[in-house]
Amino acid sequence: MEHTHTAWTEYQKQHQQRFLDEMLELLRIPSISAKSEHKDDMRKCAGLVRQRLLDSGCDRAEVMETAGHPVVYGEKIVDPGKPTVLVYGHYDVQPADPLELWHSGPFDPVIKEGKVFARGSADDKGQFYMHVKALETMVKTGSLESNVKFLIEGEEEVGSPNLGTFVAANKELLKADVILISDSSMISMETPSLDIGVRGLSYIQVEVTGPNRDLHSGTYGGAVANPITMLCKMIASLHDENNHITIPGFYDDVVEASAEERELMARAPFNEKEYKEDLGVKEVWGEKGYTVNERTGIRPTMEVNGIWGGYTGEGAKTVLPSKAYAKISARLVPNQNSRKLTDILLEHFRKIAPAGVTVHAEEHHGGEPYMTPIDSKGYKAAAKAIQTTFGKEPIPVRGGGSIPICSILERELGTKIIFMGFGLDNDNLHSPNEKYNLENYYKGIETIPYFHRFFAQG
Amino acid sequence: MEHTHTAWTEYQKQHQQRFLDEMLELLRIPSISAKSEHKDDMRKCAGLVRQRLLDSGCDRAEVMETAGHPVVYGEKIVDPGKPTVLVYGHYDVQPADPLELWHSGPFDPVIKEGKVFARGSADDKGQFYMHVKALETMVKTGSLESNVKFLIEGEEEVGSPNLGTFVAANKELLKADVILISDSSMISMETPSLDIGVRGLSYIQVEVTGPNRDLHSGTYGGAVANPITMLCKMIASLHDENNHITIPGFYDDVVEASAEERELMARAPFNEKEYKEDLGVKEVWGEKGYTVNERTGIRPTMEVNGIWGGYTGEGAKTVLPSKAYAKISARLVPNQNSRKLTDILLEHFRKIAPAGVTVHAEEHHGGEPYMTPIDSKGYKAAAKAIQTTFGKEPIPVRGGGSIPICSILERELGTKIIFMGFGLDNDNLHSPNEKYNLENYYKGIETIPYFHRFFAQG
Predict the structure, then answer these.
(1) Is the pLDDT of residue A215 over 60?
(2) In this structure, are B20 and B106 located in the same domain?
(3) Does the keyword field hold ATP-binding (chains A, B) (predicted)?
């Protein structure tokens, strides 16, 4: 065994620069799934992922069609009798706006102080690609002990609208004993952690219409309901003075975390002073009665992701606008149901529309919350792999983000999901200057082969 | 006298098409004062106004520099001993956004159903140009009985930041017995009216900063104050349940309209059903205890003119943004002071900033409210002119809009202002598809010479 480890290390050391160059090549493709003008980039990116899977040891790799952006599937079957690991990832990225806040081009990766700055570096190109290079390492050093399948999709950032259909239609192809995902973060390199859950998501867009045209705010101001003001009143009413969400039924299905889990969470290292300094805020905020980690882990939340209406250009324009808009999303926890909560949100906004305006609310996308048990073979293999390369047992934590496909994958494939993320919370996911630390990238490539070994042997 | 009238009518009829063509030429220049990229268009427009003043009978016309966009001055002095009318207008226009709502190009004037559709058609190019063509009519028919001066500025739509300095430095040049402005509307062609006042304006921009960068709403949502939500809470708090403005001190200096004035206002024709139908709203809105006309005439109001923050593009992005912004303006009535109210607004927003965010509020521009007496020689000349061409005595009304320069002009020149607007409330001022009815344009050109005659004789 020690021999193999040395061989892995040696191989990875030799090919370090190429492993990085290949990741940068992926990052140069602006594969923004939300924007229709990037349709060709999406296809180009899928093609490159397929080629790299083949180059890295897959026996088979294909770009497979869906009703939206294509999925890339790949596999390396060493022995059908051996356990199979299905690696899920996504090659699509979030939009890069606001562009003016980036220090370098979002699709011109720059390496600075040991970090790769580019959209998608941590979410999720840099992370799923660790698995591709881990496969290469195991194949080239003759040490692959499990079968490996890859399901790399192109619509994660828009809520995976077509992946459920794809997975249902390809159950046999995707059959596996465990699903492994690196699309999340750990507390720090000094305090490795493994996510045991992700929050669900309900995302809606609200359109408020006042008068049938933009009006002069002098001629009409004071006599006609202003849709911006009305939208603000609706948004302001979503949280009470304790920052509890006021929408009727919102908390109905929430399973309260046990005292034991909250006790465990409280032991995870957290420095509020550093947290505030990192974010540049004087105060943290949130639901009364819960700590910062609880607010982002075990509690459902509601955020306005965007708002616009009226004149937003240079200078002053005295308009009373016809329309105002907001994008609003809720993060959900077990056992909230995304479909049900989306309906509750849509209904709520329609119901609270003030007199004088009309409200049109529609669904963007959603995803179910997901939890994974810590006594499974998969979790134990992940914990042991982390222990091996980090020298420390990982802390189990609940992640605040959402991977909408989790509940669908488990339902369709009957397989548990293991979250083994190597990112950090300050990777600027979904923000300008997204980055991924090279140390984390290489540590991931080093750690993943152990997961396969321990899972195959376990 | 009847001879002259016939001569005017005859002359105007003969030159009707050219009077229109010249207006359209002005409308083709995108003289948007708020946008720096239109600086050259502003200068081009000023040059054309100067040329037209000379062509139309002025002895002298000049483009005069200010610290911002230039002023156009022109004059026709028939006899220094005769009364002098100073015509004020502006050649700058509001921005044309949102462009997608225009049925034709904002700077490609189109004539449809007797209306000129173009930005600036009613506000104010089409209106000030009536005075230029009225001068031409009087000069060419040998019937000008007063001296005429023109002060056509280029910064009205951005709050006339440099006109005060200009007027103070040119008191002698601008000396007049009355100031005449056509930059407002009348009730209808069947119910002519004369504005006896305009509201003042205090316009501010608010910037709310939460975290120092855009964050992932999953990782941080629920634990960090969202600047959009906080901005909405602040905006929502500006009006109470009766739509009174809640800002301390806001109403302190308001002079309540007399019971007599409110009684007079109530007699002006107003059809709430038609008003709502025209605007496409189910309900009117506004301060409890006041009618629609009172809300837009005698009461101060507060409108959000624009709001933006976070992701506003296609699709969904799960961001908790760093910043959110709003443009907010108040309309003021006698004796509110714009400077004082702006300070009250700025201070209020800084004071109500919720914990977890910082608020930066700054001034855009302002203007004082203004009232003109109905027993003056100027008002009487205007009323008689309207009576002559409309066959009906005009109703005195308070306009809801603002002409920030009024109080400055009166202070510097010691002269009262007469508002003789020929627009209509549905001209879509500051909105897409701004229009000016040709009937109103020609009626204005027909009426204005009577004002000069009655004022000179009065």
Answers:
(1) yes
(2) yes
(3) no
The predicted-structure confidence for B128-137, as pLDDT tens digits, reads as follows 999 999 999 9
B165-182 residue pLDDT tens? 999 999 999 999 999 999
Q: Which amino acid is at B171?
A: K
Residues B279-288 have pLDDT tens digits of 999 999 999 9
Q: Which domain holds residue B341?
A: 200-254+300-367
For strands A215-216 and A301-310, give the pairing.
Answer: unpaired
Residue A174's Cβ-count burial label (10 Å; 0-12, 13-18, 19+) is buried
Contact status of B226 with chain A (Cβ, < 8 Å): yes
Q: Is the dihedral of CA B336, B342, B343, B346 positive or negative?
A: positive
Q: What is the mean pLDDT of chain B?
A: 95
Which of A312, A345, A367 is the C-terminal boundary of a domain?
Answer: A367
For residues B159 and B186, state if they share a domain: yes
- Residues B362, B375 within the same domain: no
- The CATH number of whichever domain residue B450 belongs to comes to 3.40.630.10
Do A361 and A395 reside in the same domain of the chain? Answer: no
Among A102-116, B207-221, B255-269, which is the least confidently predicted range? B255-269
Q: Using CB atoms, which residue from A326, A356, A401 is nearest to B216?
A: A401
pLDDT for position A4: 64
Chain B contact for A31, CB < 8 A? no
Does residue B166 lie within any of the structural domains? yes
Q: A39 in contact with B at a CB cutoff of 8 Å?
A: no
- Report the number of distinct structural domains present in chain B: 2
- Confidence (pLDDT) at B1: 46
Show which of residues 51-80 on chain B sit within 8 Å of chain A, judged by CB atoms.
none
Mean pLDDT confidence for B255-266: 89
Specify the pTM: 0.84
Orientation of helix B2-14 relative to helix B125-140, angle to 10°: 120
Which of the listed residues A367, A385, A413 is the one where a domain comes to its end?
A: A367
**B228/A235 CB distance under 8 A:** yes
Q: Which residues of B touch A295 (CB under 8 A)?
A: 222-223
Mean of pLDDT over chain A = 95
Name the minimum distance, in Å, from the CA of A428 to any CA of chain B: 7
Contact B318 A36 (CB under 8 A): no
Name residues 402-431 of chain B within 8 A of A (Cβ).
Answer: 402, 425, 428-431
Q: Using CA coordinates, name the residue in chain B closest to A315.
A: B34
Does some domain include residue B169? yes
Type of residue found at A298: I
Give residues with Cβ within 8 angstroms of A81, minimum separation 6.
Answer: none
* Alpha-carbon distances, residue B135 vs A100, A350, B386, B440 (angstroms): 51, 56, 17, 17
Indicate if A38 and A176 belong to the same structural domain. Answer: yes
The CATH code of the domain that includes B333 is 3.30.70.360
